Amino acid sequence: MSLQSVRDFFAEKAPDISVIESAISSATVALAAEAYGVEPGRIAKTLSLRIGERVILIVAAGTSRMDNKKVKAAFGGKPKMLGLEEVAEITGHEVGGVCPFGLKTPLPIYCDVSLKAFDVVVPAAGSTHSAVRITPERMVDLTAAEWVDVCEIRP
Prior knowledge:
Blueprint: H1 2-13, E1 20-21, H2 29-36, E2 43-51, E3 54-61, E4 64-66, H3 68-75, E5 79-81, H4 84-91, E6 109-112, E7 122-123, E8 130-131, H5 136-143, E9 146-148, E10 151-153
Parallel strand pairs: 2-7, 3-6, 6-9
Antiparallel strand pairs: 1-8, 2-3, 2-5, 4-10
């Protein structure tokens, strides 16, 4: 279901972008980097957070780490990661395949400026074995995301 919702999203909004699939799991940044032959920073990980009553998605570079103080300052509350079942229920995507495309429930999407370091990034595409190659700017445009500065880059 989830992979199909992402395929449908791209068929409608960006038919020039194809979902790529891997025989090996890409459920973590390290696995995804290996599966798609890119450095870990290019993996665009999607964080599913609850801040007060709101649920938001933050897409960030794979080597970045969320800065709780920055998130609190930007969104006015303490962030809490959603639980496994909650993620699947709200986004329609399983953990390891969460992405800002083809969501079950429309959610506010934010892209961290850490993504701007790359010409092309590789976010998941709804499953632990799928992804897309996309420019950060195109991802922002297609998902109506906003840029934020809420992460720190890890060496």
